[in-house]
Amino acid sequence: MPKYRTILLILLASILWTAMPTPAIAASDWPETSIDGVSYIKVERLRAFYKFKNLQGDRGYYTIGSALSGKGNRFLKMKADSQTFYINNVHFELSHPVKRNAQGEYLISKLDIVKVIDPVLRPQYIKNAENVQTVIIDPGHGGHDAGATNSAAHEADLNLKVAKKLKALLTRAGFKVVMTREADIFLTLQERVNIANKYENAIFVSIHHNSSRGSSKGIETFTLAPKGTTSPYARTLRYQDLAGNSQDSTNIALATAVHSAAILRTGAEDRGIKRARFSVLCSPKHPAILFEGGFMSNPEEARLLNTDEYQQKLAECICVGIKNYKAAMGAKPGSVPAQSASGTRSGSTSSRRIGTSTRGQTIRGGTSASRTRP
Ligand SMILES: [Zn+2]
C-alpha cells in the first residue's frame, strides 16, 4: 500500500472519533456576513474554535487543521467558489460554495458549518443519537423495476447480492438486521420507509448502483438535503423540515462513516457525500443514507461489480462504516469511544485518555438531532 494511502487510512479511521478541545470562542459571538442571501462565517473563526492551524496542503486549496497526517489529526481543505470540500481528504459536496472576500479571507456558510463540519468533527456532541441496534438494509429496485442494467446484470439483483452479504456481516457483528426485501419483488418507496419506521434504535441503509451515459465511475453516498437548500438531486427549495431532517446531524455522520470506509477500502473514485431529497431519504425517522456502490455503465467497474469478491468488499466497507458510526455515537463529549473500529488499522482507542471532560459549546443552530415520532 503506498504511503499516502496508509496515512489516509489512519486519518479516516479517526475522522469521526477524536474528542475536540474545549472551544475557546463563544460561537454565539461569531459575526455573520450575508452573501447572495446566505449567512456566512469567516473560516478564521472556525479555525480558532477548533484550535486548528493554517496548513500547507495541496496547491490551489486553503487548508486548516491540526496536521495533515498522524492519528487523530483532522484537516479541512477548501477552494473559493466551490462546493467541493474535504475533511481528511474525504469529499463532501457542501450546500453552498466556499467564498473568499476582497481581503483574501475564506468564508463558509453557517448552514454547512452546522450541518456538515461540526457533526463530522465532533459527533460526540450530537444530541439524542440513538444507540444503533437494528440496521434496515434496503436493496434498491426489484420485481418489474430492474434499475440500471448492463449486459451482465440487473441493478436490482446486484443490490440484493451486496445487501445479503452485508446482512451476514452485520448479524455476525451482533446487529439485528431487517431487509426491506430478500427476493426479487417490487416494493414502493413508501413501503420501504414504512418497514424502516416500525423499528426503534435503527439506521436505514439503501443500496444502489449507478449508471450514466458517460465514463463516470466511483462511489457516492447520498443523505437528505437540509431545509432551505438545493442540490442537483434536490432542486426544489423546501423551507419546511421533512421527517428525515430531524436526523440532519446523524445523517451526515452515518454518511461520512460509511462513505469514508468505502473509498478507503475499495480505492474507488470518491464522488463525494451528496445531498438529495430521494423518497427513501425524506421520511425515515432514523439516520438514513443511500449508497451508490459503483457504475454498472463503466466497463471497468461493471467487471468488478460482477464479482463475488468485490460485492463482498462493498458489504465489508458498509459494515465497517456502520460499526464506526455506532462507536462514534456512543462516545460521550470529552472522550473517545471505547469500542475499536474493527477491521481498520487504527487499533483500539480504549486505552486513550483525553485531557478534557468539559462539555464543549454547541455551535449555535445546533448539532441537536431531536427525535420525531409519528
Ligand atoms: Zn438504483
From TrEMBL:
E.C. number(s) listed in UniProt:
3.5.1.28
Keyword Hydrolase in annotation: yes
According to the UniProt entry, which residue ranges have a biased composition of type Low complexity?
338-368
According to the record, the signal peptide region is 1-26
Please identify the protein, giving its name as recorded.
N-acetylmuramoyl-L-alanine amidase
UniProt key word Signal: yes
Tell me the organism. Akkermansia glycaniphila
List each copy of the MurNAc-LAA domain by range.
Answer: 193-323
